[in-house]
Design brief:
The protein is 29% helix and 16% strand. The protein contains 13 helices and 19 strands.
Length: 426
């Protein structure tokens, strides 16, 4: 008789609007089984990524109802934050693993802790640690999003991306500018280059210059603002003067491009405004901007609306790109499945999750455990307002009711496990 303790890990159907990804794909099941992990799948969980229940059943998963998952599962695997009704169904001793963005919603961590649920957030991973790289969901999803941003831009653009010489005339290649050349930006550059565009890239971290040029793009040099390399390979927030100088100098460059894709993020802060209203006004009719930083807090582009496409009075199309990775659901799910499986295997010892925040990876990702919010960055956001550090950048355009003091993201500290817990939302 098999007396080995086994874990039941459950894949739930994502409930947030437009979310088509699924946390595990069928081929993960074989990799988890030898580690004592059995997989339950909520019926229909893979439908959005064209993964039918039968594919999971054939791979050895049990197809069950949501109610059975909440009753029997040890670990719930999600892509994004669970919905409130899901959280209410969780019970003491269960764990939830996903991209929970706890710095944007620390009250979720408090709620899970109060229920005795262990919360693990992949977006808190110390990404520069080489052994953590298979678990890096921010990178895998940013890659997908950066690729899709170019396709979205090409779809909106009324001309060709490549140089085309035909009997009906010659079309010059599109001039594409990518602002913010981290993971998503570099993927956008590569994709735009493969479509034949003439591409430039710009980032406030000078170290990205070689990455940009190695992809065959030109690195845009600004003279008015220097380096803003921050902790752990991320950018720091610019001062108001630096911001203004950057915006002004960028405006002239933006006007010379047909397509602008913005990806700039600063961990735990609202995205920096790179394309001002004046810069948009200076662009030619037919130009396209895809703002991957678009969010309720405001994006990289003046006038962008998350989840919407607007056309300005001077004929510039601004796409407020939201959750682009979810629009490439099969590829995004396959990559995410690898990331979350690697995390689950890292955490599993002898048929149980072995939570140990002295481990550098766990220190970054474990948010709530044993009834308490254990991540210092998230815990500090839950302190009463008067004991919190001062906010350095109020969100000017944000309605008051969506910006309670506790939910304003804070700058992660170097001792919080590397990268910010609430990374980019793309
Ligand atoms: P991100 O999503 O936080 O930001 C996107 C880009 O925006 C960054 O390159 C950032 O420098 C840039 N940016 C921010 N403010 C800006 C401004 N005002 N003007 C212009 N650009 C601005 O970044 P990311 O894609 O998550 O990557 C951040 C860093 O982490 C990069 O250095 C990347 O190479 C590194 N990284 C390393 C690993 C690893 O070591 N395995 C994995 C992932 C990312």
């Amino acid at each position: 008789m098999d007396t080995v303790t086994r874990i039941k890990a459950a894949v739930v159907r994502e409930a947030s609007p437009g979310e088509r990804r699924v946390a595990l794909v069928p081929d993960a099941i074989d990799r988890l089984r030898p580690a004592g992990i059995d997989v339950l799948v909520e019926s229909g969980a893979g439908d959005g990524a064209w993964l039918p229940d039968a594919a999971y059943a054939d791979a050895g998963a049990s197809i069950v109802s949501a109610a059975e998952i909440y009753r029997t599962a040890d670990v719930i695997l999600t892509v994004t934050r669970p919905e409130p009704e899901t959280i209410r169904a969780l019970r003491k001793g269960q764990a939830v693993i996903g991209m929970l963005s706890p710095l944007a919603a620390p009250e979720l961590a408090a709620d899970l802790a109060a229920r005795g649920v262990t919360a693990i957030s992949l977006d808190g991973l110390p990404r520069t640690l080489s052994r953590a790289q298979p678990m890096d969901a921010l990178t895998s999803q940013s890659n997908v999003a950066g690729y899709k941003a170019v396709l979205v831009a090409a779809g909106e653009y009324g001309r060709f991306f490549p140089l085309l010489i035909t009997a009906a005339g010659t079309a010059r290649p599109a001039k594409v500018l990518v602002l913010g050349t981290g993971v998503a930006g570099l993927q956008a550059i590569g994709t735009a280059r493969r479509l034949g565009a003439v591409v430039s890239g710009y980032d406030i971290r000078p170290s990205s210059r070689d990455e940009v040029t190695s992809l065959g793009a030109t690195f845009l040099e600004l003279t008015s603002v220097g380096s803003a390399a921050g902790e752990g390979g991320y950018a720091r927030e610019l001062s108001p003067d630096e911001r203004e100088a950057q915006q002004e100098e960028l405006s002239a460059h933006i006007a010379r491009h047909d397509v602008v894709i913005t990806t700039a993020q600063v961990p735990g802060r609202r995205p920096p405004l790179l394309v001002t209203e004046d810069a948009v006004k200076a662009m030619s009719p037919g130009s396209v901007i895809v703002d991957m930083g678009a969010s309720a807090l405001g994006g990289n582009v003046s006038g962008s609306q998350p989840g919407e496409t607007v056309v300005t009075g001077n004929g510039v199309t601004i796409v407020g790109a939201e959750n682009l990775a979810a629009t490439v659901p099969a590829a995004a799910s396959a990559a995410y499945s690898r990331n979350i499986s690697a995390m689950l295997l890292h955490l599993t010892r002898d048929g149980a999750l072995a939570i140990d925040t002295s481990d550098e990876i766990q220190a970054g990702v474990v948010i709530a455990h044993d009834g308490a919010v254990v991540h210092p960055g998230v815990a500090s956001l839950l302190q009463p307002a008067e004991t919190q550090p001062a906010q350095s950048q109020p969100a000017q355009s944000q309605p008051a009711q969506t910006q309670p003091a506790q939910t304003q993201p804070a700058e992660p500290q170097p001792d919080e496990g590397g990268a910010g817990v609430d990374g980019p939302s793309h």
